[in-house]
Amino acid sequence: MMQNATEPDPGLPGTPKKAVLSRRALLAALFLGLVCGMGTISVLAGARDGTRSGSRSNLAASNAAALEILRTNCFGCHNEEKHKGGLDFSTRERLMKGGESGEPISLTKPDSSLLLKVLAREADPHMPPNKQLEAGDIRALRAWVRQGAAWAEGAMSGDLVPLRPVLLTSLPPGYHPVLAMALSDDGKKLVAGRGNRVILYDVTTTNVVAREGGQAHEDAVQSVAFSPDGKTVASGAFRKLVLWGAGETLVKRTEVSAGFSDRLTALTFTSDGARLLAAEGTTGLRGRIRVLDVASGALLQTWDAHNDVIFDLSLSQDDRVLATASADKLVKIWDFTKRRETGRIEGHSAAVYGVSLNPEGTQMVSAGGDKQLRIWDVKTREKVIGLGDPKAGVVAARWVRMTNMIFAATEGGNVLSYVDYKPHSGEQSSSSGTERSIGKASEGLQCMAVSKDGEVVCAGGQDGCIQVWKRDGKLIAKLFELEAN
């Protein structure tokens, strides 16, 4: 339960990612501190610090406002990866160094700074392109330059507001939900979050042995992912990301916590394994995409993608198309190379828990709490087909690229596969495709993983049970116990 606090935290650590009780209803209940006996974590949220002097606080606020203008209007084209004109806004040092047109800011003659000149309506070149900043924004930037162009950590990630302190207490005894899992591309290794531990399983053996398990986070693990080469595992929970070396055992390599304000609810690697996309969100407020460098853990990019928590991410094989699924009932399609939204799907009447692109990135399948499993055309955003009749909210969907099969898991505990899905016209035949049951788990399934060839299917749920099947439905293993190191 939630202890008394100065302010209630809008996103309480330790909540199930998806459950038989709808995600929205569950988080709303936790917010009010009304859920009993569900194994939730106690938290203590501290109040914001309001002791700073007025003048100092006003200066900090004006600097923060100016930096936010730069972040939302300039950083998209002038960052570490895409530095147009040779200009990079990711740090103050890089900004002050300038680009092809010279130094953008003059501290000795601030009003003559190139950064300010290009903002004028008649400027040529004009920045930002195809947009004129409001007069108030220009005044804010001018004041910021005149005051010395002060910087702050997190300026370009939108994290200038200090994080509210949150004290995480221990998970209740016996509470080990499986909220996230992933299989390596070769189908030999399964990584799963069980409570606040991350465990690596060898699924090539008959009895599916656990190679290593250790506490990774204070909060329940919300997301995990394997790199394409199977050598790196990422795990995410409340305000922390962990990168692991994945060999015979898991070896903790890097912890990244700076800048995260809430839970990391979905993770996926780029095709070369060099970058990691992390979805971070606060219930009812926003869902962000953060892009990190895997080698160093450094934050490369951040942008606000949804107005609620993001439950799933899917990248096309060429890393050009990104699809995101959110509690705001939307699936959004992005040009990942330009960090630009290219379309959105509004075809679900409840939270969208799963999304998965086909190999070419031309179609995708989405899974929702509205008991709908649908295939969409990415370019036209039209529904191509509705799959089966899941009978319960669908918590996960995977388009297996080597086989062109689709797998899905429902809150009711069913794990299903689909083949022979064909486009059609007319709502009278809105559901199609051959549906087959892979296996049945207990109610409250939270996650699913499928090998690249579709031969191994795994599912986990609120009761902490992990089940592993062959594609033909043969049960390989049913794992309950939390293995020791």
Characterize this entry briefly.
The protein has 485 residues and is mainly beta. The protein contains 5 helices and 31 strands. It folds into 2 domains: 54-157, no CATH class; 168-479, YVTN repeat-like/Quinoprotein amine dehydrogenase (Methylamine Dehydrogenase, Chain H).
What does this structure look like?
The chain is mainly beta and 485 residues long. The protein has two domains: 54-157, no CATH class; 168-479, YVTN repeat-like/Quinoprotein amine dehydrogenase (Methylamine Dehydrogenase, Chain H, 7 Propeller). It is 11% helix and 37% strand. The chain has five helices and 31 strands. The protein has helices at residues 23-31, 54-73, 92-97, 114-117, 135-146, and strands spanning 43-45, 166-168, 178-183, 189-194, 197-202, 209-215, 223-226, 232-237, 240-246, 250-256, 263-269, 275-282, 286-293, 299-306, 310-315, 321-326, 331-335, 340-345, 352-357, 363-368, 373-377, 383-387, 394-400, 405-410, 414-419, 431-432, 434-440, 445-450, 456-461, 466-470, 475-479. The strands form eight sheets. Strands 19-20-21-22-26 form a five-stranded mixed sheet, with no helix packed on it. A four-stranded antiparallel sheet has the order 3-4-5-6, with no helix packed on it. Strands 7-8-9-10 form a four-stranded antiparallel sheet, with no helix packed on it. A hairpin with a 5-residue loop joins β15 (310-315) and β16 (321-326). The longest helix has 20 residues, at 54-73. The relative contact order is 0.10. Residues 1-54 have low confidence and may be disordered.
